[in-house]
């Protein structure tokens, strides 16, 4: 019953459908732009390009996750802004159950929208890459779900977006303010990639990439030269899961012990 109530509330928000559509479209469009920007002609030779074509094909999630953050935060903070949180807790005073249902519904919607977005990105990559010289003849077979690293990258990218949703739900519950929560999550996600470019010490760059939620989580997209990555694919996704779990725990504790 609690999950159904949360689904009804989220479904009736006008922004929900638009944000889910934005997630799909932005994933595909920005991935297409990323793929279009790489060309084997810019490399010394076809064998010296070293592009991870699967990762390039899935680049759009770096922008599309903005829609996930906004959707997940609004799912929580909209109730505080409208005063509906009092009605919700009167109907179900078990706050942990309410938060779990809200997080579950938001994550399920994000995962459902992430699948076509990610698969669409992979399809766009298969269509564009050969025209840019990344063909099987040059040693770059098109990204395929039959290839285990590509399949792992696709599944991992979908799970990445689901974990970002949980992270945003946790932060939104803790802060209860729409603008503040969105900014806080975006800072968590996007600060590390900027700092990595500013830090000159490679050792500290690797440490930051291994610990930050976005850079570690997106390690799951890597399909080539894994030994040169700061962190392994599933280990990186695990780091993001820890961030999401910590945010949810903080949100749950604050939700339980303070006034609505």
From TrEMBL:
Keywords: Membrane, Transmembrane, Transmembrane helix. The chain crosses the membrane at residues 61-91, 103-129, 149-169, 181-200, 234-255. It comes from the Bacteria. Coiled coil: none annotated. This is ABC transporter permease. It comes from Plantactinospora mayteni. The lineage of its organism: Bacteria, Bacillati, Actinomycetota, Actinomycetes, Micromonosporales.
């Amino acid at each position: 019953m609690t999950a159904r109530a949360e689904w009804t509330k989220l479904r009736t928000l006008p922004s929900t459908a638009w944000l889910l559509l934005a997630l799909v479209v932005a994933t595909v469009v920005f991935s297409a732009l990323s793929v279009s920007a790489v060309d084997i002609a810019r490399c010394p030779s076809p064998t010296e390009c070293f592009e991870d074509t699967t990762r390039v094909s899935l680049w759009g999630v770096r922008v599309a996750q903005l829609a996930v953050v906004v959707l997940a935060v609004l799912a929580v903070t909209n109730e505080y802004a409208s005063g509906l949180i009092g009605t919700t807790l009167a109907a179900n005073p078990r706050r942990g159950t309410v938060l779990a249902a809200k997080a579950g519904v938001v994550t399920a919607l994000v995962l459902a929208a992430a699948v076509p977005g990610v698969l669409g990105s992979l399809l766009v990559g298969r269509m564009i890459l050969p025209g840019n010289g990344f063909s099987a003849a040059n040693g770059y077979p098109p990204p395929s779900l039959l290839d285990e690293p590509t399949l792992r990258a696709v599944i991992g990218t979908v799970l990445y977006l689901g974990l970002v949703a949980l992270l945003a739900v946790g932060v939104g519950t803790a802060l209860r303010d729409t603008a503040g929560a969105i900014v806080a999550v975006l800072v968590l996600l996007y600060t590390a990639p900027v700092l990595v470019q500013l830090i000159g010490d490679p050792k500290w760059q690797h440490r930051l990439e291994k610990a930050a939620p976005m850079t570690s989580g997106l390690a799951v997209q890597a399909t080539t030269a894994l030994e040169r990555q700061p962190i392994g694919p599933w280990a990186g996704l695990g780091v993001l899961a820890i961030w999401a779990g910590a945010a949810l725990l903080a949100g749950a504790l604050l939700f339980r012990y303070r006034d609505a």
